[in-house]
Amino acid sequence: MRPLPSGIRLSGSPVQGALLRGTAPRGVTALDLDGVQVPVAPDGAFLLGFNRDAPPLGVLTVTLADGQTMQEPLTVAPREWRREFVAVAARGGVLSEAFMARRKPELEMIEAARARQSDSAGWRQQFIWPATGRVSGIFGSQRIYAGEPGSFHSGVDVAGAVGTPVVAPADGVVILAAPTPFSLEGNLLMIDHGMGLNSAFLHLSAIDVKLGDTVRQGQQIGRIGATGRATGPHLHWSMKWNDARIDPQLLVGPMAQ
Which fold has domain 2-75? Predict the structure, then answer.
């Protein structure tokens, strides 16, 4: 871990889509990254997440017991995202009232789930792949339609046959197990790993856990499917630290085949 002038130590370097682990020395009472409060464990351990489009400079504000603050500038390295240029414009159209009536409560459930905080220590673990198979989609990739950027891919996709087991990448608590398939995500499962870090698993054919369950790393939590808006059976695994979209592939080693 490299030390900063405040005594904060960070493992790794800030880069777009990355999650860093850090340690704060005694006497540090609060941290925030660009205005976002950073939870700190009793032993001083914490996480810092950098969004896919994080700006080149972040500021970590360190508050000491005597009320003094220090600001640590963090240079965030950019990444070269995979882009596909399409000559035609994206399909437009006004979303129907029926779709929006269905979508609104789904989004509210997702927002409420992300607001749930657990004391899980899964964030301390070395994460593992939740499924094995061909990586068919990578984090951050984006289509450009006639010069207009579309939304970026928010996770990593693993292709597999319907029914292929999906396991917990780390310990956690189930914060959402969709009672019925969502219009876009299909059968959606979300797990909180603690310290503001959570995982979402989309398009499942089955969910094998329920809301509030404590899950252990490697435990089967569901099965690959093609529910919701999916072109074929695959697992979409996305991660967030607070509101920052994190690249799951940066947290796991090479996939065991």
Answer: Immunoglobulin-like (2.60.40)
